[in-house]
Structures are given as structure tokens and as C-alpha cells.
Amino acid sequence: MRTLIATRISLILALLVGATLLSWFLDQGQGSSSSQYASIAILIIAFVKVRFVITEFMEARIAPLPLKLLADGWCVSVCTLLIALLLIAA
Amino acid sequence: MSSIASDTRLNQPEGGIHRTPGEIGIWVFIFGDLLVFSLFFAVFLFYRRVDVELFNASQAQLNQVFGLINTVLLLSSSWLVATAVHSARSGVEKTPPVMFLMALGCGVVFIINKVFEYGDKIQAGITVNTNDFFMYFFIFTGVHAFHVLIGIGVLAYLANYSWSRRGSMSTSDLQNLESGGIFWHLVDLLWIILFALLYLVN
Questions:
Q1: Where are the domains of chain A?
Q2: In A, which residues are within 8 Å of B95 by CB distance?
Q3: If you compute the radius of gyration of chain A from its CA atoms, what whole number of angstroms results?
Q4: What burial letters (b/e) apply to B30-43, b meaning 16+ CB within 10 Å?
Q5: Does residue A34 belong to the interface with chain B, where contact is any CB pair within 8 Å?
Q6: What digits encode the pLDDT tens for the residues B136-154?
Q7: What value of ipTM does the predicted structure carry?
Q8: Do A56 and B82 touch (CB under 8 A)?
Q9: Which residues of chain B lie closer than 8 angstroms to A15, CB-CB?
Q10: Spatial CA neighbour of B45 closest among A42, A7, A71
């Protein structure tokens, strides 16, 4: 059991849970003036988490380059689009 | 039928050899689903800008603890599934089915949590017809919950599959486990963005 827990993906899980709590605290600490920056940070953190899920849990890191590029391209383009929509609303 | 122990491609995924995890078909499905949800995310933020005040006031009525607990549940279940696949690849016999069942348990708790959350809202008189925010909230989380239910079925299948093939798992068996696991990770991935958009961004 110890060998199961002390693995690379366990470290990834710890990072993902830590990032989730960081997003939570960013949301809780939002004042009206810092709200926009906090929201952008929350979105970026979400997509960094998503990239970790794709590369580590889905194991895209061992996939051929086109699949990796497609995954990274999706993360960057959708994250950029959503941040742009958020800024337009502001 | 090639033995898993003799298949260096699957046994040593970190050895610098590039291969597509699971079947190529599951990745086609994954990117198709991601495209549909990308549209959902963009539509939500596009219409949010029309009435930011309403969206922010509606979001304040959500209980974020439900979202936070569900996020940790799905992240943990993803870890369990990834660990199950790694264990199966290493030739461990009994761990994969147990891990898949534990991940399934996380999925069931997620659904129970979602039922309580929906019940809480409906009791407060909030439904899909209340306003645009709650229309998107119920539709997007409902479509996602449907993915979770399918995923629970997939995990039950994987638990049985890995149990029935323990000790004699072939390369194609392992690829099937990977494909099922990748679908469950998609469920986790989509929730990460839904949680940020619906519960946190304002």
C-alpha cells in the first residue's frame, strides 16, 4: 500500500487539492476591486489543474506529439477565450 | 494474447516511448466532448456580461461547500483510477478492482451530494426557470451529472473486468482499462472548470 501512495500521481493529487483550496481562498478573499484579478487567477488555476489531469492522470505526457499539442492547444485557447469574455463583461 | 509482463511498451510508459494511452477512439470522443463543453463555458460567460449583477447575486445563493466537496471527491476518484491502471500495468492482481470500486463510491457520493444541492435549491423556490444563471447552472451541472452516472457504470464494468482478468491481463485488456479510466478523468476535468465558472468566478 505504501508503494501505491508514494507515487508521482499522489504528488499530483496533493497539488490539485492544494490548487483547489487556493482557488477557494481567492474567492473568499475577493473584494470588489480585486474581484476581477481574483476571477482571472481562479480561471488560470482551473486550466493549470485541467492540464495536470490530462498529462498525468490521462497520461497524455506519453502520447504522440500531435495529441499533446491538441490537448495543450485546447487548454490555452479555451482559457484565453474565457478570460477575454470575463474582461469584456468588466 | 500477449502477457502484460512481456509488454515493455505498456510496462514502461516513462521510458521515452510515445504511445496513445487507451484507444484512439476514446480520445476522439474526449475532444468532441471538450468542444461541446467549451461552447457551454463560452455561452455562460457571454450571457453573463449582459447582466453581471444578476449572475453574481444568483451565484451568491449557491452553497460553495457542495462544489468544493464534489471537486475533492472527483480529484480523489481520479487518483484512485490512475492508481488502479498503474497497478494493473505493474501486474498487481487485487488492487485494481478495489481501487475502481472506491472510485465508484466517490462517484456515488458526488451524485448524492448533487441531489441534496438540487433539493436545497428547489426547496428555496429556485428552479431552472428562475433566471438565466440558474438555467445554465441546472443544465450544465445536469449534463455533467449524466456523465458521472455513465462514468459510474464504466467504473463498475472496469472493477468487474479487472477482477475477472486478474493474473492474466493482456495488452488489449490493459488498453481497455486505460480507455475507461480516461473517460472518468474527463468527468473530473469538466467539473474542475464548471466549479470555477459557476461557483467561484464573479
A1: 2-89
A2: 4
A3: 16
A4: beebbeebbebbee
A5: no
A6: 999 999 999 999 999 999 9
A7: 0.92
A8: yes
A9: none
A10: A42
